[in-house]
Task: inverse folding
């Protein structure tokens, strides 16, 4: 029986376990990446593991998230990251070099390799044929220490593409179509594999737009084959020697099929407040808009910006709209500076922003009250932009540019621009001078904001506490642990913990710590798809710091589940979904017989306030059960 591309890479990297769908396996991770917002904690954890040198093939530390630098904290973090990378043997990508996923695709990602990154959009590299997964910082630290990464051998869904995109319809519309079909919940332990003749019509950066936003569906990763377009891209990057052809066997069998005829697609948009809330642009046309932002790891490639510039050329941004453009990397910035695209953008009135995450993570460019903001990024979660009342729509660069001119949601097919001139270049301007290669020098600099990673406490034998909060479905890690203005506290857990659930219930942190100080074990009660979105392990570390010992939910997303287990918080699932309704915030709860329940994986929750028992299932592998007993992986791991 033929193999899928996914299982070919997995079998090449298998370290332990049976390579069969649903089994727990561990795989060798060839490459790793970190970014600064998750990276400081990842390297502190690496140090806490007592390891001196990186052991995987390539570890790259990017600085791209916290580059606004209000106050000393971020600059101190960057210094720590530069000096620890130098010591342990990681390549350091300086601020200004660009967004980790864009830069990694350009300079390091290779077909057939595995990549783990402390960022949920690491699957961007699936566009070049890498098996690339997002994970919490601790899992990345362990991978850098040479420890194999554990995953559940996934289901593989074939997404078969046929036809060719029409002008003004783009890769973003393909992934929005995928999101419309699969939604943002219920796709755990799944890989999307793209096949079909339509694949040949897409360049590597276009493919990377698609694999990037697979993260929004919650899949483990997404993969494109490695073919002649891959070779051309690598050649244009001066890296052709890394090319290998790779695809599924013709007789590979899949666990599902979704077909898309590219030639029938039309411009789409993800409406507030979920990337899975899809409408046609034609249905939104005419809506007044206030802000347009082009950039992020989804849509900031050279051809993305060329297309936007072609549409904007000869026009001025509408007087009531602010347009910002953030090229994805220094390479892209140099390319558009050289060929006049930058001038076109500036002439149109675009505000040229740093090659960094910036607006996407709510670091700056917060829209006005009740504003409508069109963005080419991948997440429009509630309050992520920094303005809770704003409405964010996720669109293609073409839709963004066309709308920036008119001041209303506009179908880009109405533009008179000629996009046929926009082609992939045969060579990119390659300049690696913003990478610092490690020297091995031990001169690690730690500013006052950089603390120790907190350790957990062992599983209590009497597990009693309160339902400290009850939340609904699709609670994202942005709800749990806000970024934006709070991002600078990533290296300072006690301070950052003050903002847990800030946009949902600002009194949570105080209440949780009061219960903790009385010696209680706190509970979070949640609906379906708890912990969607980012890989930020702070969404587990900070609740742990506040005394949370269990999350009881209808379902929990993959990366967040792993982060909870890594930090000793029990991920528990309702046996009967309806029981979610029975618990109220503030109820007194007790998990009966925690130790024997941990072994069996079956828990009984006693709601003392209601006088009822609720059966729960532990969502954890055997390996995770050991960490949960110990109070987290840092308490348990011995290398
Ligand atoms: C995001 O897009 O939400 C982030 C910011 O890149 C996160 C990582 C983080 O919170 O630092 C992610 O996607 O994992
Ligand atoms: Fe950065 Fe946004 Fe991409 Fe996250 S999604 S890595 S914040 S650009």
Result:
């Amino acid at each position: 029986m033929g193999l899928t591309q996914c299982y070919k890479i997995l079998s090449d990297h298998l370290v332990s376990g049976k390579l069969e769908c649903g089994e727990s396996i561990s795989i060798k991770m060839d490459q790793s990446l970190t970014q600064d917002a998750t990276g400081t904690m990842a390297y502190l954890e690496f140090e806490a593991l007592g390891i001196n040198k990186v052991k995987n093939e390539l570890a790259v530390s990017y600085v791209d998230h916290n580059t606004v630098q209000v106050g000393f904290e971020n600059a101190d973090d960057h210094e720590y990251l530069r000096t620890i990378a130098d010591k342990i043997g990681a390549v350091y990508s300086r601020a200004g070099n660009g967004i980790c996923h864009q830069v990694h695709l350009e300079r390091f990602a290779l077909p057939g390799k595995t990549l783990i990154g402390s960022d949920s959009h690491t699957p961007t590299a699936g566009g070049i044929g890498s098996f690339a997964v997002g994970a919490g910082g601790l899992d990345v630290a362990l991978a850098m220490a040479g420890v194999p990464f554990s995953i559940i051998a996934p289901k593989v869904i074939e997404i078969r593409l046929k036809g060719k995109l029409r002008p003004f319809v783009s890769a973003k519309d393909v992934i929005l179509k995928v999101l419309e079909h699969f939604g943002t919940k219920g796709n755990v332990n799944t890989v999307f594999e793209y096949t079909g003749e339509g694949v040949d019509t897409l360049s590597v950066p276009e493919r990377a737009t698609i694999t990037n936003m697979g993260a929004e569906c919650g899949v483990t990763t997404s993969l494109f084959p490695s073919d002649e377009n891959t070779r051309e891209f690598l050649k244009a990057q001066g890296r052709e020697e890394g090319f290998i052809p790779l695809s599924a066997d013709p007789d590979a069998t899949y666990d599902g099929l979704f077909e898309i005829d590219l030639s029938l697609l039309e411009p789409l948009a993800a409406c507030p407040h979920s990337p899975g809330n899809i409408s046609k642009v034609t249905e939104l046309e005419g809506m007044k808009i206030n802000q347009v932002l082009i950039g992020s790891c989804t849509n900031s490639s050279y051809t993305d910006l060329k297309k936007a510039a072609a549409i904007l050329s000869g026009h001025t941004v509408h007087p009531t709209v602010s347009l910002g453009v953030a090229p994805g990397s220094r390479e892209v910035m140099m390319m558009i500076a050289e060929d006049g695209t930058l001038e076109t953008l500036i002439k149109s009135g675009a505000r040229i922003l740093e090659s960094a995450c910036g607006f996407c993570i709510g670091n700056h460019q917060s829209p006005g009250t009740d504003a409508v903001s069109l963005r080419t990024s991948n997440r429009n979660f509630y309050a992520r932009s920094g303005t809770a009342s704003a409405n964010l729509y996720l669109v293609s660069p073409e839709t963004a540019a066309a709308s920036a001119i008119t001041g209303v949601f506009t179908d880009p097919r109405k533009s008179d621009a000629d996009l046929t001139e926009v082609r992939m270049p045969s060579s990119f301007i390659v300049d690696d001078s913003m990478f610092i290669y490690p020297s091995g020098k031990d001169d690690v600099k730690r500013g006052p904001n950089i603390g120790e990673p907190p350790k957990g406490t062992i599983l209590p034998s009497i597990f009693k506490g309160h339902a400290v909060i009850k939340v609904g479905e699709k609670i994202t890690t942005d709800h749990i642990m806000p970024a934006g203005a709070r991002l600078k506290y990533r290296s300072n857990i006690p301070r950052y913990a003050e903002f847990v659930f800030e946009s949902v219930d600002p009194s949570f942190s105080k209440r949780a710590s009061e219960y903790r100080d009385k010696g209680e074990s706190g509970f979070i009660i949640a609906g379906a798809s708890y912990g969607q979105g980012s890989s930020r392990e702070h969404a587990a570390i900070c609740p742990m710091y506040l005394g949370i010992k269990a999350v009881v939910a209808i379902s929990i997303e993959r990366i967040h589940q792993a982060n909870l287990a890594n930090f000793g918080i029990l991920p528990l699932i309702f046996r009967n979904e309806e029981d979610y309704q029975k618990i109220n915030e503030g109820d007194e709860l007790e998990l009966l017989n925690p130790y024997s329940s941990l072994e069996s994986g079956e828990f009984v929750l006693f709601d003392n306030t209601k006088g009822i028992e609720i059966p729960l299932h532990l969502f954890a592998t055997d390996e995770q059960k050991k960490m949960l007993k110990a109070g987290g992986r840092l308490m348990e791991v011995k290398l």
User: Anything to note?
Assistant: The radius of gyration is 23 Å. The pocket of alpha-methylisocitric acid (ligand 1) is lined by residues 37-38, 65, 119-121, 134, 361, 379, 483, 533-536 (CB under 6 Å).
